[in-house]
Amino acid sequence: MRIDALQYCNYSEKIFRQWREAQLDAVHVTIAYHENFREMVANLEEWNRYFERFPSLIFKGTTAADVESARDSGRTAVFFGFQNPSPIEDDIGLVEIVHQLGVRFMQLTYNNQSLLASGCYEPVDAGISRMGKEVIAEMNRVGLVVDMSHSGNRSTIEAAEISSRPIVITHANPHAWHPALRNKSDDVLRAVFQSGGMIGFSLYPHHLKGKSDCTLESFCTMVAQTAEKYGVEHIGIGSDLCQDQPDSVVEWMRVGRWTKQIDFGEGSKAAPGFPAQPEWFEDSRGFNHLHRGLLEVGFSAAEVDLVLGDNWHRFFRENFSAINS
Amino acid sequence: MRIDALQYCNYSEKIFRQWREAQLDAVHVTIAYHENFREMVANLEEWNRYFERFPSLIFKGTTAADVESARDSGRTAVFFGFQNPSPIEDDIGLVEIVHQLGVRFMQLTYNNQSLLASGCYEPVDAGISRMGKEVIAEMNRVGLVVDMSHSGNRSTIEAAEISSRPIVITHANPHAWHPALRNKSDDVLRAVFQSGGMIGFSLYPHHLKGKSDCTLESFCTMVAQTAEKYGVEHIGIGSDLCQDQPDSVVEWMRVGRWTKQIDFGEGSKAAPGFPAQPEWFEDSRGFNHLHRGLLEVGFSAAEVDLVLGDNWHRFFRENFSAINS
Question: What ipTM describes this predicted complex?
Answer without folding.
Answer: 0.87
